[in-house]
């Protein structure tokens, strides 16, 4: 045990500096250089006061020009921009969910995609009132996929998944008029409302932002998560490793990057095939290593223990190792920079989705019907590329940590069963976890999510916040690039229990878990919503009363704004380390950090100082405990 040590951000940065030297040798560009070129950022954009939604503009609000040409004031402009920002994120997550539903629709006994968790499919079918008795599992899969797809465009009614929330939460959504209707409708309505000459009233724009967010978290993302589990298996604890050192200099290295597990699952499948391994060997490699970047990585790590090479701002580093034969991407968070960068090396940059097409990439279109064939040809291409490596350029930082990942709600309930000696709950409720919380052994939970952003020293905020939280007996559940930051540092190694306060340490020992639990990708924040809903139901409390908060200290994408909106709208206070371009409007900023609390019993806090950020989260958790007398 004595040899356990976290990897520090200083060490991450030393490794990056060394890789950038390789980059300089081959004339590669890097985000570190581009940030310099883009600094300082445009103040109008940064504060959200620039409007270019019609061709009379662009209009920029200043003290001398307080209104746009149409007369829109700064609050309307900032509010509209915020709603459009949200709509982009809700559309993106939900479309990912839709792709998964289509894959489920095409699943077949002898097809590329099979149903790996039939029990979960049946559970969801029962929840949706669909008869399962005597039905062939694939008939059921197709029926459920079609019903799920209808959630995107149904003309009447609200999202089916909303019924998973406690009644009190559903009542709030009804009362406030934010219960999401069809997923696509909420996205379209958001774009309609923020069109020139529609809404300019901040309350209306922020209300719709919450609604569109809910269509994502309790709609599209939930479809993505739940049906990915049905197709690829519901995650359970599995050991893996994280950081660039998972790449292997003697092997063919294939990096999977993006979000949709349909592609990466297939690549992993073929990379394991003895025929492919023999093929790799025929080019002088010892084997094939698949590792991941961003959420695709989280997906295959959670289900297969595939190692995580890094998170968002490390995506260029994997190419800079000089040992990457192919970087295969699907959708979202992929730097267009990867094309030109790969050209500086032997690396093949392979795009696979019509949604994410980029210059300087090889496009191999991937869909359910040809998935097997195409995955095989991609793996082959990578093997053949091994001989093109320039050995002088190869440098893989010797840096990796052990991680145990795969904590779906189902897995969390299971591992925490029996932690308390009073009872072992066979019904699979969250009672044992609740007991830990009410007794004060665990003070509360923080959901740490989101990206990296050059505005924040990469990974530093994630890691420092998590360290302080666990030292204060606050369990951390993490997803997305936040989870990868934790894994790279070593916080998902079970030995990290030694960094916890006495209470959380004891729980980690009894349950044999790390103090930071990997719950998956960004769409999997819907898992966190289900967990919060279950905790509320099992305790008889409202979600807003639970000592639980959300935090995205390094977020950057539109998706993150959509997520923030549904987390807040679900009654969970959310702490951001980066401002969502709303500081230009006192009214919009005040609504988000204050006003929405009257609607949904939670609000945002934006705080760039991470010491203050963590202290305010701990204070909030303690306030919540005091309010319910625990
Ligand atoms: Fe993308 Fe999901 Fe953000 Fe990471 S955390 S940078 S969105 S990969 Ni969701
Ligand atoms: Fe300017 Fe109004 Fe057009 Fe926006 S909508 S660009 S504020 S005229």
Would you give an account of this structure?
With 630 residues, the protein is an alpha/beta fold. It folds into 3 domains: 9-33 and 244-393, Rossmann fold (3-Layer(aba) Sandwich), CATH 3.40.50.2030; 47-232, Substrate Binding Domain Of Dnak, Chain:A, Domain 2 (Up-down Bundle), CATH 1.20.1270; 405-627, 3-Layer(aba) Sandwich (Rossmann fold). 48% of the residues lie in helices and 10% in strands. The chain is built from 24 helices and 16 strands. The protein has helices at 9-25, 31-38, 43-47, 74-105, 118-127, 137-150, 167-175, 183-193, 202-232, 261-271, 274-281, 294-304, 315-320, 338-343, 371-385, 409-416, 431-439, 460-471, 480-489, 502-511, 525-539, 558-569, 586-600, 610-627; strands spanning 50-51, 59-60, 238-242, 252-257, 288-293, 308-310, 326-329, 348-351, 362-363, 401-405, 444-448, 474-479, 516-520, 548-552, 574-576, 604-606. Strands 6-5-4-7-8-9 form a 6-stranded parallel beta sheet. Strand 14, helix 22 and strand 15 (574-576) form a beta-alpha-beta unit. Helix 5 crosses helix 9. The model is unreliable at 421-426 (pLDDT under 50). The structure holds FE(4)-NI(1)-S(4) cluster and iron/sulfur cluster. FE(4)-NI(1)-S(4) cluster (XCC) binds at residues 259, 294-295, 311-312, 333, 450-451, 480-481, 521-522, 557, 559. This is Carbon monoxide dehydrogenase. It is an enzyme of class 1 (oxidoreductase).
Any descriptors?
alpha/beta, 3 domains, six-stranded parallel beta sheet, binds FE(4)-NI(1)-S(4) cluster, single chain, 630 residues, nickel, Substrate Binding Domain Of Dnak, Chain:A, Domain 2, binds iron/sulfur cluster, 24 helices, Rossmann fold, 4Fe-4S, globular, nickel cation binding, CODH
């Amino acid at each position: 045990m004595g040899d356990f040590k976290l990897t520090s951000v200083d060490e991450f940065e030393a490794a990056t500096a060394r890789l950038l030297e390789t980059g300089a040798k081959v004339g590669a560009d890097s985000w570190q250089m581009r940030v310099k070129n883009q600094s300082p950022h445009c103040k109008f954009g940064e504060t959200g006061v620039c409007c270019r939604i019609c061709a009379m503009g662009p209009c920029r609000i200043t003290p001398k020009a307080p209104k746009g040409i149409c007369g829109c004031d700064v609050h309307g402009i900032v509010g509209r921009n915020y709603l459009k920002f949200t709509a982009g994120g809700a559309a993106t997550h939900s479309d990912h969910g839709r792709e998964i539903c289509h894959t489920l629709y095409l699943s077949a006994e002898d097809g590329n995609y099979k149903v790996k968790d039939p029990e979960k499919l049946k559970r969801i079918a029962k929840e949706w009132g669909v008869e399962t008795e005597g039905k062939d599992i694939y008939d059921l899969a197709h029926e459920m996929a079609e019903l799920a797809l209808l959630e995107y465009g149904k003309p009447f009614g609200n999202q089916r998944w909303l019924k998973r929330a406690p009644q009190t939460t559903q009542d709030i959504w009804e009362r406030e008029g934010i219960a999401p209707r069809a997923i696509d409708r909420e996205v379209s309505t958001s774009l309609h409302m923020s069109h020139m000459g529609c809404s300019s009233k901040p309350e209306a724009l922020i209300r719709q932002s919450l609604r569109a967010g809910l269509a994502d978290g309790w709609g599209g993302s939930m479809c993505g998560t739940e049906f990915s589990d049905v197709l690829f298996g519901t995650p359970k604890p599995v050991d893996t490793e994280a950081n660039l050192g998972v790449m292997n200099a003697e092997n063919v290295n294939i990096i999977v990057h993006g979000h949709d597990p349909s592609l990466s699952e297939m690549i992993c499948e073929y990379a394991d095939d003895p025929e492919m391994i023999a093929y790799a060997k025929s080019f002088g490699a010892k084997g094939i290593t698949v590792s991941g970047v961003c959420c695709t990585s989280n997906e295959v790590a959670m289900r297969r223990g595939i190692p995580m090479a890094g998170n968002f701002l490390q995506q260029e580093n994997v190419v800079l190792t000089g040992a990457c034969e192919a970087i295969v991407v699907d959708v979202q968070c992929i730097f267009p920079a990867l094309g030109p960068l790969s050209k500086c090396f032997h690396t093949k940059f392979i795009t696979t989705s019509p949604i994410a097409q980029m210059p300087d990439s090889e496009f191999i279109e991937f869909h359910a019907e040809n998935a097997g064939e195409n995955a095989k040809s991609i793996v082959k291409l990578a093997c053949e590329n091994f001989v093109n490596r320039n050995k002088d350029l190869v440098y893989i930082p010797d840096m990796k940590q052990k991680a145990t990942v795969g904590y779906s709600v189902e897995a969390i309930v299971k591992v925490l069963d029996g932690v308390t000696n009073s009872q072992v709950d066979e019904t699979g409720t969250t009672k044992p976890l609740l007991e830990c919380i009410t007794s004060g052994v665990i003070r509360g939970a923080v959901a740490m999510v989101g990206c990296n952003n050059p505005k924040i020293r990469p990974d530093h905020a994630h890691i420092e916040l998590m360290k302080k939280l666990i030292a204060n007996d606050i369990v951390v559940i993490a997803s997305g690039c936040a989870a990868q930051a934790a894994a790279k540092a070593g916080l998902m190694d079970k030995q990290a229990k030694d960094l916890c306060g006495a209470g959380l340490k004891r729980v980690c020992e009894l349950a044999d878990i790390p103090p930071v639990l990997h719950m998956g990708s960004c769409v999997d924040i819907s898992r966190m919503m289900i967990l919060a809903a279950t905790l509320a139901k099992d305790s008889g409390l409202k979600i807003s009363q639970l000592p639980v908060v959300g935090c995205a200290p390094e977020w950057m994408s539109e998706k993150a704004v959509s997520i923030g909106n549904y987390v807040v709208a679900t009654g969970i206070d959310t702490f951001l380390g980066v401002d969502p371009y709303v500081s230009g409007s006192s009214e919009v900023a005040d609504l988000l950090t204050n006003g929405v609390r009257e609607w949904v019993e939670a609000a945002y806090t934006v705080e760039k100082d991470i010491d203050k950020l963590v202290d305010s989260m701990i204070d909030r958790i303690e306030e919540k405990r005091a309010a319910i007398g625990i």
